[in-house]
Specification:
The protein is of the alpha/beta class. It has 2 domains: about 240 residues, Type I PLP-dependent aspartate aminotransferase-like (Major domain) (Aspartate Aminotransferase, domain 2, 3-Layer(aba) Sandwich), CATH 3.40.640; about 130 residues, Alpha-Beta Complex (Aspartate Aminotransferase, domain 1). About 35% of the residues lie in helices and about 15% in strands. A 7-stranded mixed β-sheet has the order 1-7-6-5-4-2-3, sandwiched between helices. Strands 8-9-12-11-10 form a 5-stranded mixed β-sheet. Helix 2 runs parallel beside helix 9, helix 3 runs parallel beside helix 4 and helix 10 packs parallel to helix 14. The radius of gyration is 21 Å and the shape is globular. It binds pyridoxal-5'-phosphate. The site of pyridoxal-5'-phosphate has 14 residues, from helix 3 and helix 4.
Amino acid sequence: MSVKPPSGKPGTGHAPARQLATRCIHGGATTDAATGAVMPPIVTSTTFAWEGFGQPREHIYTRSSNPTRDALERCIAELEGGARGLAFASGQAATAGVLDLLDAGSHVIAPLNFYGGTRRLFDEVRRRTADLDFSFVDMCEPGNVEAALRPETRLVWIETPTNPLLHVVDIAAVTALARSRNITSCVDNTFATPCLQQPLQLGADLVMHSATKYLGGHSDVLGGIVVAADAELGRQLHLLRSASGGVLGPFDAYLVLRGIKTLALRMERHCTNALAIARFLDGHARVERVFYPGLPDHRGHALAKRQMSAFGGVVCFEINGGTGAVGEFLNRLQVFAIAESLGAVESLAGQPATMSHSSVPTAERRQMGIADNLIRLSVGIEAEADLLSDISQALEHH
Ligand SMILES: Cc1ncc(COP(=O)(O)O)c(C=O)c1O
């Protein structure tokens, strides 16, 4: 399979680099060459007839490559500024694909506070099945990463902003440290998306996404993405993915690509709505603490301002009144639905302790700083006034 260079239409020559909002729509030059269809066809065929014996065409078998999935992969590689994109069946499959790069006995440094499912895959599965070892450190302090380094450290896994407490990690500092020791670095860019943050430009080797979230954007497709800065790393990941088989199907690839077309527009509204909600919650009598990198008193605010173009669509807060108050608040919401997941057009709310992070053992969850009265809001793109009044009325009654 050949990956076409990340470019716009042929003949644009030395035109200035297009802005991200334009690249979301035209990235990967996905217009179908045969028909001119501006959206690539969904190619369902699992196999492709050879021109003759010993003469395969570009695509051979869909587990290795598929035209629809290729279109998505070219698009996301262009958005992240990488050499190659690879689409997996879910975010977890993408993360597992990155871990497959490592030999048994390797050591991985990962955040103390990050998505619970990634922690479960690392700590409960790959520690046992692949003989990997993991150190979980507070990465907001890059010195903690340095202190955790071992001769057998092969991967630094970064997530920023983190799920759910929105810790911000200095990507340039941590990836420079990894690079100086020849250690691969990977950034889970799910919360920021390439619209807000570009980890490969800051020195990361790999970017990973749960495409289920903002890239897809409509709560109707599960998917994962890895983008490699370097073609050789991309080639290795492609081989490993073909071997293990956790690829994204063509229908789902189409949906993610379709979602990306509106990503820049959606992210703008997610971010302005989320900032308005964070400001509303900050100082509210029923709120103990708000977590949002856009608030000046957030620990990572200055860094987020430098590293991101806006602060994202997730806001967390601790409600006063304990777990009872959590249920009462969630049940009173009318626009927000109580649901897992995040990053789609509709607003969702949940309690990380019993939902997104229920797979993390209680003691570890507490160590991560995820209290039982923590509520996570995935702020959608509805009208700001409706979201504010929904939260306001749900907080009023207790
Ligand atoms: C930050 C982050 N990374 C990875 C994942 C896993 O993605 P998926 O659910 O698509 O497997 C999630 C899912 O919530 C997530 O929030």
